């Protein structure tokens, strides 16, 4: 049984679990309607009535951050899921079928030559704003990186003896891929997808901050940070508190990925085993 000894992994797991629970139960956790405007209470500092203060329209900032967690988790989870599916399909195909490897990886390498943020911006600009289009853009920008990770695992697994044994016994290509090769790709794929979630949180916030992501009426962390630019001197909490939540979310996912990488990597496992007397 694999044991995760990394302290940062457990810290990240706790923080991420709390954020997921907040996102799931946002209507219960939120203290106010995130869309309720009260100009008489705009830019109030944090206090008993408003835990994070209020924004430039008098909306409760804590409630908007809470609902922003839901938006962030939906987008990052969706991008990780769909980029994982698409990247795995492309990586398995390119790694197993030699004739298809060159054309598939040529396209993937060409897409990876473009910075992911710039590629996502181009796709969003072409498709328009909105959550669905933002997810599509981020999936397109991340799938080539997932495909490269899966392809590398496939090329390594193909050289192992049990693959040759399965082929000599008449196993079909589909059975070999699904039964024997894909399980060898799961560990690096999981680690890669945790990185995808972390990058997605930042990219969603950045694209929305630039006005290329979600609709301005959507309570998201990117929208909150974009709106707070006007009041950075007058109400620094407006930038500081939502920014801390975003940093904690990204840190938690990165910590999970680092812990899983250290645990699932055989070389690191052996080294840690010696350190802990295993």
Distance between the termini: 13 Å
**Helix/strand order, N-terminal first:** HHHHHHHHHHH
Shape: elongated
Could you name the CATH homologous superfamily? MetI-like
**Portion in helices:** over 70%
Highest CATH level, the class: Mainly Alpha
* pLDDT averaged residue by residue: 86
Radius of gyration: 22 Å
Oligomerization state of this entry?
single chain
Taking pLDDT < 50 over at least 5 consecutive residues as the criterion, the unreliable ranges are: 270-278
Number of separate structural domains: 1
Main sheet characteristics: none
Describe the structure using short key phrases.
278 residues; mainly alpha; 73% helix; 0% strand
How would you characterize the overall build of this protein?
The chain is 73% helix and 0% strand. It has 278 residues and is an all-alpha fold. The protein contains eleven helices and no strands. The chain has one domain (7-243, 253-270): Orthogonal Bundle (MetI-like fold), CATH 1.10.3720. The model is unreliable at 270-278 (pLDDT under 50). It has helices at 7-24, 26-29, 61-96, 98-112, 116-127, 131-158, 161-168, 173-209, 221-228, 237-264, 266-275.
